[in-house]
Amino acid sequence: MTLPNAAPAALPAATAARSRRGRRPVNAAAPSHRGDARLAWVLITPSVIGFLVFAVYPTLRGIYFSFTDYHLLSAPTWIGFDNFVELIHDGTFWASLAVTVYFVVIAVALTLVIAIVTAAVLHRVTRSTVVRGLIILPFLISGVVAATVWSWMLDAQLGIVNSVIHAFGGQGIQFLTARQWAIPSIALIHVWKNMGYTSIILFAGLQTIPPSIYEAGRIDGASETSMFFRLTLPLLRPILALVVVLNVIGAFQVFDIVSVATRPPGGPANATNVLQMYIYKKGFGQFDFGYASTMSLALFAMLIIITFVQMRLLRASESDNA
Amino acid sequence: MRKLRIIAGLVVAGLAAAGLAACSASGDAGGKVTVNWWTWDDRQAAAYKLCIPGFEKQNPDITVKISQYNVDDYFTKLTAGFVAGTAPDAFQNSVPLLGAYAGQKQIMPLDDLIKKTHYDLGQFSVGVDSWKYLDGKQYGIPLDWAGAAIYFNEDMITAAGYTDDDIQNMTWNPDDGGTFDKIVAHLTIDKNGVRGDEPGFDKNNVKTYGIGTLAAADFNGQTSWNPFVSTLGWRLGGDKKAWPTELPYGDPRLIKTLDYIKGLGDRGLMPKYGQFTVSAAEQMGAGSVAMAQDGTWTATSITKVPGIKVGIARTVKGPEGRSMISNSNANNIFVGTKHVDETWKWVSYMGSLACQTTAGKTATFLPSIAQALQSTVDAQKAEGIDLSTFVQALNDKELYPAPPTVNGQELTDTIQPEFEAFFNGEKDDSIFPQMQKQTQQILAKK
């Protein structure tokens, strides 16, 4: 019984293997490329080792830790799904998730709006590389430096922003120390830092749109605004999808700004206790690495789902150009 | 794939070996043993360096190396050292971390060494019991003690018609606030020059507050609300002096005290929580506050603020006298040290009258040995700073040691946001019984 069944099953696999080989680029087997495989392996080995040691191994180990009670200084103990049960009942985790989502929505929406407008203006008004360089400048500054400088400027007592507000007769604002202001202020710092990079990517995307399309639009009597909404945005969709995905992931991972600009980090009263901050406190503050790993895994799963949904909704691989 | 795994394995092993070799904890330099000691306080690092010549003279075969790392990185670095086996031989530690380090067997019990060398723990006036773990063994040798004091601007006190004695002897109770309340109100001045106890006082436009904020979110309120509520007989550990099973935040005495303190902010007599972002010394220097209750460790810096003369007073006298929580840092020895005896020699030397007197003269810390503390006070008196109130506090037994607890960091992370929410008005005092229940859960965790 075994043999007749096994033989047909083996066939499609062999066929598939042959067909995969058949799809190989023709020149890969060309005489001039023979022996390249070894060189290729040598060249990519450092990256592969780095990837295995610093990405794959920590990820797998993190997944393992999420099923253990692990306090760093003693060996991990397998506890099955206990950490996941704790996660479901942990009010602080859900509050942190809500804070993070609030931050992501403000940060991503503002970044996108400002970056699209900036890119469009750059594209239509100036080709100056100096201006482009200036716009990307904040992105080149370390997050810690940006957060430190902004926390000084937004300081409730001594900050220059409040001095200006006072000079105009306004009441001072506790930007980083009042609950209602803390997340919007952190989001603003994040937007300031990341907007330039996003603008430049969008600007590069805009340059792929043939000028003839705008000429045609102009001949048809379309205004700049209507061309922006009817031509630019639809044609930019693949790049926009990339930018949205990158920004959402980046915003979900916010940590440095919160850690530096809020006192105590995550305060006031957990108003800025974003998920990464909570994970950090659990892991590196309380040494509860098992539970911290579980939360990291949950964040990882959420980001995969969100990215997948975004890619589907934005039909990222196709543009309206086709 | 297998080859790749082998290569990756070799690379990791190589990196680890190189890392270990690079940060080896202690070594033998030319026949001498080096003992590494860490602290987070740069001023104490400098102070204890003064003890090294005396120690090395007594122990010519031992060299001591002191390293200081900022408190923000200190404990993370220490933990990394435990994992890698490269932690210092001995190090300064804080009470809330005793549970974690002793519980996970990273620091060694010192009882055998104490017995073997006839080391006298009885010389310490405070701090010894805070360093006994659940197993009853002694894990730390006290280095210092820290409490709270009231610092006041002499000129503002005089201008308001008070004497130093009035400030030294302020009374307090949670009902009418005692003389403390009257003095704070009178010292507060609004932008129009109206005092806090006069008609027409504008609480929303205050130029000088009577006292710096007492609304702090740390779970023991060491330099803020604790010296007030402790005068009512309340203790952080309840009936237990060590390893409490709950922290009695739901106690009506605490709730009444915290309501009183929050009320000072609402009345415009004290800055509200988060209103000022600079230190008490800077607030006094800027004339924003007339008095400030702060840690004993700020005494030498706050009294040197240029342009003002700052006096030091004891904490308030309440219905049950004066009382405040005190925290004693201590020396711990890493279980992974290769030189137990040499390390113990250094640790026990640091905990001797000779070293405590030498290092203590700088007043960067207050020695736990009463005689050494007196030397500190005498040395500072010569510099024009009067720290005699600290000796009084120690001699009058006004200090009660902070109880060691398990899961100290989780307590902080859980309780702090609740206090913040109370002081900034997001939540009312009904949260405190719930906080007490939270502490039961955290302290019950293994």
Order of the strands making up the biggest sheet of chain A: 1-2
Radius of gyration of chain A: 26 Å
Count the domains of chain B: 2
Task: Please mark out the parts of chain B with pLDDT under 50 across 5 or more consecutive residues, or reply none.
Answer: 6-27
Taken as a percent bin, the fraction of beta residues of chain A is: under 5%
Question: How does this structure look, described?
Answer:
The complex is a heterodimer of chains A (322) and B (446). Chain A is mostly helical and 322 residues long. Chain A has a single domain, classed as MetI-like fold (Orthogonal Bundle), CATH 1.10.3720. Chain A is 72% helix and 1% strand. Chain A starts with a helix and ends in a 9-residue tail after the last helix. The two termini of chain B are 42 Å apart. Helix content of chain B is 41%, strand content 13%. In chain B, helix 15 (353-360) runs parallel beside helix 16 (370-382), helix 16 packs antiparallel against helix 17 (388-395) and helix 18 runs antiparallel to helix 19 (431-444). The chains are: A mainly alpha (322), B alpha/beta (446). At the A-B interface, helix 2 and helix 13 of A face helix 1, helix 4 and helix 18 of B.
Task: Give me some keywords for this one.
heterodimer; A: 322 residues; mainly alpha; MetI-like fold; two-stranded antiparallel ribbon; 14 helices; globular; disordered N terminus; B: 446 residues; alpha/beta; D-Maltodextrin-Binding Protein, domain 2; 6-stranded mixed β-sheet; 5-stranded mixed β-sheet; 13 strands; 41% helix; 13% strand
Short structural description:
Chain A has 322 residues and is mostly helical. Chain A has helices at residues 2-22, 36-65, 82-89, 91-125, 129-140, 143-153, 160-167, 179-207, 211-219, 224-235, 237-252, 256-261, 275-285, 289-313, and strands spanning 68-69, 77-78.
Task: Record the SSE blueprint.
The complex is a heterodimer of chains A (322) and B (446).
Chain A: H1 2-22, H2 36-65, E1 68-69, E2 77-78, H3 82-89, H4 91-125, H5 129-140, H6 143-153, H7 160-167, H8 179-207, H9 211-219, H10 224-235, H11 237-252, H12 256-261, H13 275-285, H14 289-313
Helix pairs in contact in A: 2-14, 3-14, 4-8, 4-11, 5-8, 8-11, 11-14, 13-14
Chain B: H1 2-22, E1 28-29, E2 32-39, H2 42-49, H3 52-58, E3 62-68, H4 71-84, E4 90-93, H5 98-103, H6 111-116, E5 141-142, E6 148-153, H7 154-159, H8 164-168, H9 178-187, E7 189-190, E8 206-211, H10 226-229, H11 252-266, H12 280-285, E9 289-295, H13 299-302, E10 310-313, E11 324-326, E12 330-333, H14 340-350, H15 353-360, H16 370-382, H17 388-395, E13 399-401, H18 408-423, H19 431-444
Parallel strand pairs in B: 2-3, 2-4, 8-9, 11-13
Antiparallel strand pairs in B: 1-2, 4-12, 5-12, 6-9, 6-10, 7-8
